[in-house]
Specification:
The complex is a heterodimer of chains A (about 700) and B (about 600). Chain A is an alpha+beta fold and about 700 residues long. Chain A is built from 26 helices and 22 strands. In chain A, β16 (about 455-460) and β17 form a beta hairpin. Chain B is mostly helical and about 600 residues long. Classes of the chains: A alpha+beta (about 700), B mainly alpha (about 600). Chains A and B meet through α7, α8, α11, α22 and α23 of A and α13, α14, α15 and α17 of B.
């Protein structure tokens, strides 16, 4: 019978996740958020990051640092001159430094998590002695670090593969758990789309010859370490734009606060009494107004986004790719393995007139007993369930099993003088007629009807007697329908790619609920389709594994290559899924969206917070000049000092409080844009305006309680 | 507030709403180069203009060329306005014999900058400074030119959104010509005739001298008022023929002419929202902006009306009747014309500062603290509540970009507006425009608060720049702040109470006008160029919706929040504290006028 290529193991594993959530439970690689080791590293790094030269790259926090330094200088002067308000000044200075440190800590946390992953990867990078095959068939022992492109090495069972390469001879099972975290071994063989091997993985059986495809320091593992470590991190386009926005806002608030000094001088002269606010208070107002929350967390959000992708065992080559994933309009999904289970299953048994269902079932079962393909097994299962016929054991030697061949296009068994066969309709008909049997006229229609519905007809015969048809069907994965519907709600079109004929493709497309399909798709068709979508302004994501997928992977805005695929495919895509699970494309899109939402939410929150801070600081700052402004003190803060301090402390603490949110990302629900916006505006916009009022009030109460102000 | 007053406000808004679609649709056709019902009548004039200035109608410009054309147009207008003012003594239509003595170089600079930037700030008193020739040949002409340029820029920015992968944004000369020939000119003619019907004067006579009943001699200024008045309001210019502006009975004689003035101010800005919607192929987008405009307008007008009608509580304590009744308006009538009353004064003040007009029919300086806060805050938003002709639309589109960028991320996509991705370039340009405005307002006013000059010296004869104020206390701060807000926002209305005709104020206010106009619109034109070059992304369920009430609320919130956050400290030392002080009974003295005009 016809066999389809067996997809790699992991496909079936994550497909049954909770269909209501696009983000499945964290995989094995995830670490607790505040791992003590990571926290220790991050704390040390937060101090190192105080270096103004590094901090300059973050204009918001740089302004805070300059403000903190300025306040410190004035406080020190006040200590020596014995001026009033030293206790207040010292506390302000300290909290301003804490503000910078907290922001540094957020970034350091995100980086340290990446570094920790890189370290565990690096541990696997032991230097291997390679068996290098020199001309003349001589094998020479060479350190793995000396291998160059096009060297050929030999690996036996138990050997570590010394470098990235391509299997040019042999077939072997390989343990790739170092890279994928997946303990089940995978098969690597020469030719075809499963020829790529990765340095550091272990050959478990057999012997293969490998042509090395990368120079030392440039291997997949090296690149992976560099990526997770953040060494190659570049700001993404959206991050740069957001940086411009918050730097601009910082400049505006700088203008507003700096000019407040001459305004106050004028007002004091007019009122004939009162005092101009001091440096500590002006700096406090500035720091509270500038968007320190998002300024402090922005880079952490970006790094954490990459990290989240990594936790899903997907390796993104750049942050830009993750961002682009959030923008995707069209998802190109391969039918087999993504939308449907990898194998067809028997769903129905259709005897021809005059044949009992039991007879057909029995013949189908017997002919499938030795058939180890999933299709064959599914027939045995169906027969057992529907007709109660237990699988029988046919002793070896009593039967002659006929394996499937592409030439005969059928398989079966010769048993107790019977010739039981199942296979393609035409092949079986020919078999029956050759033996003098008859094929009724309606038989072809029966067969066609199944084909039109998206199924595969499998005819069954007992010698010259034609018995009927087994209906094999593509099974759409459980929960796939909901996911496609979710995608549609998010505004993403799903397109099914299949090699099937248009009739079959249409039937499966309708069942899965995809928006469009591409039938009898060649790699060239895929490429054309992507180009067409892009010309209409859409962003396209796709998965691929074969070398012939490479051009399309490169053309797509998000190209997710399977780790089991060829090196060419992995090079062309901008992400590699280490689990080789094409369904993960949907999760990657969700992570991209979550990343952007987190940025927007924290920016909105940060700006909205300013309203309350004005109500805390402005009345306090002009208490002596215009006591009437005390009416703006709607929170009823105790003293001008406690009010200013409370605002500054709130501003610093909110950064720390939001670190988990920045690292985990805000909760993402697959909703349409309008509902998402309404929801997030309510939480982060309105919430951002309201939340600081009780927060500042509480801190003020505590400050007074502990006699700090 | 009285029910009649409230009704009048809504009738006014209804008229603007009714005109938006017909005029807006017409303008969309004009700027798309389609034939309209006016073509048989006016096409020759358009063609003649192209021939005269040597422009090919079908050649388009990149944003840089478009900006260069705009700048050369403005620089030429500036130089001409400056020269003709200084040379007025040698030119005709000058019955009062005004010369260079009335127009000092710094005043001429200020006035030239003022009219070229559509500000129409007036440091001078029209009837005692400028000849009829200056008023007609340069000031009225600049009223047309600066308004047409504003419309042209708005259209160029709209094209940024409508075009795909194009390098050009239109042709400045063509847009300016079409705006003038088909939109401004016909409407101005109709408006001038309507004004005349209400008794606005239009003559070239010398001033009339009469003897009053008391036997005093009185000079009554004359002039071609109706023609200037029409374009002054229609082009949201606001520069009055007379110093008293639209409070003067020859400029604004009746309640009907008052309504006409306000309708003319909002007419084009309101209609441009529909033009925008029609040009981008989704009129809902235009109506959303109209709705945002209306919401912000209504908030402002009712706050101002409420506080003006409430008046000063300290007077009530003295036994003065503050309530409106059949016999009297109640509330705060100081500085208001009896023929307009409180509702129409508050409405006019809101309208003129929402749009960057700057004409006034009452003295904003005499408003209550919070009543006066409204005009000031309106301008602080960057004139994006209807706004100046063209300027209002391109200003609000800037805020759309900011709002979409911040909130748009929250739908989980790179922010986009009308199918165009909002990226680095657009954000950078929008922030540049906002920073330039904030800089001009805050820095110039802060310097003026503390700058000290030699008394009787050149820069500021009264001495310190702060010595030019008319009221002490927080109101004095408001007077200086208002002047720079008005200049930067290209509004031109005066709070009054600040003597600005000194070289220091003339120069800095002139600079503020230039910064407010050009450093605002050049970044926007750059954004238009970058937008036009981008692909349009198709609309899906994942697209941030920019037409519903949610977006309108977001846009209004962004405008108010950005304005409030930037200027709250300054406002708290001005109108806000003044209000609290008034409530607590503390009042400030007026500085005697003799000290001012030394």
């Amino acid at each position: 019978m016809a066999t389809t290529t067996t997809p790699s193991e992991p496909v079936l594993k994550t497909s049954q996740e909770d269909p209501t959530s696009l983000l499945p439970k964290k995989l094995a690689r995830a670490r607790p958020l505040f791992d003590p080791e990571i926290v220790r590293r991050a704390t040390a790094a937060s101090f190192a990051k105080l270096n103004p030269l590094t901090l300059m790259k973050n204009p918001v926090m740089f302004v805070v640092e300059v403000g903190a330094a300025l306040t410190t200088v004035f406080v020190i002067r006040d200590i020596f001159t014995g001026a009033e308000g030293v206790k207040f000044g010292v506390q302000i200075a300290l909290w301003l430094w804490f503000t910078v440190l907290f922001a540094n800590f957020a970034e350091a946390m995100a980086e340290a998590r990446g570094k920790a992953q890189a370290d565990s990867l690096r541990k696997t990078k032991t230097d291997v002695i390679a068996k290098c095959l020199r001309s003349g068939g001589k094998i020479e022992q060479v350190p793995g670090s000396e291998l160059r492109i096009d060297d050929v090495v030999v690996c036996d069972a138990g050997d570590l593969i010394p470098g990235d390469g391509e299997v040019i001879d042999g077939i072997a099972t390989v343990d790739e758990s170092v890279i994928t975290g997946e303990s089940a071994p995978v098969i690597r063989e020469s030719g075809g789309d499963r020829s790529a091997v990765t340095g550091g993985t272990k050959v478990l059986s057999d012997r293969i010859r490998i042509r090395v495809t990368s120079n030392p320091g440039e291997t997949f593992l090296d690149r992976m370490i560099a990526l997770v470590e953040g060494a190659e991190r570049q700001k993404t386009p959206n991050e740069i734009a957001l940086n411009i926005l918050i730097a601009g806002l910082t400049l505006i608030f700088l203008l507003a606060v700096v000019t407040l000094q001459p305004y106050s001088v004028f007002s004091v002269a007019q009122a004939g009494s009162g005092a101009v606010p001091g440096v500590a208070v002006l700096v406090s107002l500035l720091v509270c107004l500038i968007p320190t929350t998002i300024g402090g967390l922005l880079s952490a959000i970006g790094i954490a986004g990459m990290d989240r992708v990594m936790q899903h065992n997907v390796l993104a080559m750049s942050g830009k790719a993750v961002e682009a994933a959030g923008d995707v309009n069209s998802l190109l999904l391969d039918k087999t393995g993504t939308i449907t289970l990898g194998n067809r299953q028997a769903v129905e048994i259709l005897p021809i007139n005059g044949v009992a269902g039991e007879e057909l079932a029995d013949a189908a079962q017997l002919s499938s007993l030795a058939d180890e393909t999933p299709e064959g097994r599914s027939i045995v299962v169906l027969v057992k369930e529907k007709y109660g016929l237990r699988g029988r054991h046919i002793p070896e030697g009593e039967a002659n099993f006929i394996p499937f061949s592409a030439y005969t296009r059928m398989s079966g068994v010769d048993f107790e003088g019977r010739q039981l066969r199942k296979g393609a309709t035409e092949a079986i008909c020919k078999f029956v007629i050759e033996r003098g049997g008859e094929v009724p006229g309606y038989f072809q229609d029966m067969s066609d009807r199944i084909a039109r519905s998206g199924g595969t007809p499998l005819a069954v015969a007992d010698g010259r007697r034609l018995l009927g048809i087994v209906h094999l069907k593509d099974i759409v994965k459980g929960g796939m329908n909901e996911r496609i519907a979710q995608l549609r709600r998010m505004g993403i079109r799903s397109v099914m790619i299949t090699g099937d004929n248009p009739l079959t493709a249409a039937a499966i497309a309708a069942e899965a609920g995809v928006d469009d399909f591409l039938a009898q798709a060649t790699p060239k068709d895929k490429l054309e389709y992507i180009k067409k979508e892009q010309a209409a302004g859409r962003l396209v994501a796709m998965t691929g594994d074969g070398t012939n997928d490479a051009p399309a992977l490169a053309q797509a805005d998000v190209g997710l290559a399977m780790n089991t695929g060829t090196m060419a495919a992995k090079e062309a895509g901008n992400m590699v899924d280490l689990d080789s699970n094409p369904t993960k494309l949907i999760e990657v899109v969700a992570i991209g969206k979550q990343l952007l939402i987190t940025r927007g939410a924290l920016t909105t929150f940060s700006i909205a917070n300013d309203v309350a801070k004005y109500f805390a600081i402005i009345p306090a700052m002009f208490m002596t000049l215009y006591p009437a402004l005390g009416k703006l003190n709607i929170m009823g803060l105790h003293t001008p000092q406690s009010a200013v301090l409370a605002a500054v402390i709130f501003n610093a603490l909110i950064i720390i409080a939001l670190v988990p949110l920045a690292l985990r990302g805000v909760k993402y629900r697959p909703l349409d844009a309008a509902s998402l916006l309404r929801r997030n505006l309510l939480i982060y916009g309105v919430g951002g305006i309201v939340a600081p009022f009780p927060g500042i009030w509480l801190i003020d109460q505590l400050l007074v309680l502990f006699h700090l102000a | 507030m009285t029910s009649v007053g409230i009704l009048q406000i809504f009738i006014f808004l209804a008229i603007i709403l009714a005109c938006a679609k017909p005029l807006g649709g017409f303008m969309a056709n004009v700027f798309n180069g389609e034939r309209t019902f006016l073509h048989p009548l006016l096409r020759w004039l358009e063609v003649l203009t192209y021939k005269a200035i040597g422009v090919r109608e079908d050649v388009e410009q990149r944003w840089t060329q478009y900006t260069a054309a705009l700048l050369s147009f403005s620089v030429f207008g500036f130089l001409l306005t400056y020269a003709i003012q200084r040379l007025q003594g040698y030119l005709p239509f000058n019955p009062q014999g005004f010369g260079a003595a009335q127009v000092s170089p710094d005043l001429a600079f200020n006035t030239a900058a003022s009219f070229v930037t559509n500000t129409n700030w007036q440091s001078y008193t029209g009837e005692s400074t400028l000849s009829y020739f200056v008023q007609m040949s340069v000031l009225t002409v600049q009223n047309f030119a600066s308004a047409a340029a504003g419309i042209a820029i708005a259209i160029a920015l709209i094209r940024g959104f409508t075009r795909q992968e194009k390098r050009t944004v239109g042709n400045f000369w063509v847009d300016v010509t079409r705006a003038t020939v088909y939109v401004l000119l016909p409407l101005a003619v109709i408006a001038a005739l309507l004004y005349c019907s209400q008794g606005v004067i239009q003559n070239l006579k010398p001033y009339t001298t009469l003897t009053t009943v008391e036997g005093a001699k009185q000079v009554i200024a004359q002039g071609p008022v109706a023609s200037q008045e029409a374009i002054k309001q229609l082009g949201t210019n606001g520069g009055g023929f007379f110093n008293a502006n639209a409070a003067h009975p020859f400029e604004n004689p009746t309640p009907l002419s008052n309504l006409l003035a306000m309708v003319l101010i909002f007419l084009i800005p309101g209609a441009l929202t529909y033009t925008f919607g029609k040009m981008v192929g989704d009129t809902r987008q235009g109506w959303a902006i109209f709705a945002a405009f209306s919401a912000m307008f209504l908030i402002g007008v009712f706050v101002a009306y409420h506080y003006e009608q409430a008046g000063n509580p300290n007077l009530t304590g003295l036994g003065i009747q503050n309530q409106a009744s059949a016999g009297q308006p109640g509330g705060n009538m100081e500085g208001k014309e009896l023929r307009f009353g409180i509702a129409n004064s508050a409405l006019f003040a809101t309208v003129t500062t929402d749009a960057s007009c700057g004409a006034i029919n009452s003295w904003h300086d005499s408003f209550t603290a919070l009543g006066g806060l409204v005009p000031m805050f309106n301008m602080m938003t960057g004139e994006v509540i209807f706004g100046g002709v063209g300027a209002g639309l391109y200003g609000i589109l800037l805020y759309c970009i900011i709002a979409v960028f911040i909130a748009g991320l929250m739908v989980g996509r790179t922010p986009e507006y009308l199918g165009k991705k909002i990226e680095q370039k657009e954000v950078k340009m929008a922030m540049l425009a906002i920073i330039a405005t904030a800089f001009s307002i805050l820095v110039f006013s802060a310097i003026s608060m503390v700058a000290d000059f030699h008394a009787k010296g050149y820069w500021n004869p009264p001495g310190a720049a702060a010595a030019n104020i008319n009221n002490s206390g927080p109101h004095g701060l408001s007077e200086i702040l208002y002047a720079y807000v008005s200049a930067t926002a290209n509004n031109g209305s005066a709070f009054a109470g600040l003597n600005t005709n000194t070289p220091w104020y003339n120069l800095t206010l002139g600079l503020a006008m230039i910064i407010g106009r050009f450093l605002f619109l050049i970044p926007l034109l750059a954004a238009a160029g970058s937008l036009a070059a981008k692909k349009k992304i198709p609309v899906t369920a994942g697209t941030f919706p920019t037409h519903g009430p949610l977006f309108v609320g977001l846009l209004v919130g962004t405008v108010i929040l950005v304005g409030a956050l930037t200027f709250f400290p300054a406002l708290s030392l001005g109108p806000i504290v003044e209000h609290f002080l008034m409530q607590s009974g503390k009042l400030f003295s007026m500085i005697p006028v003799t000290q001012l005009w030394s």
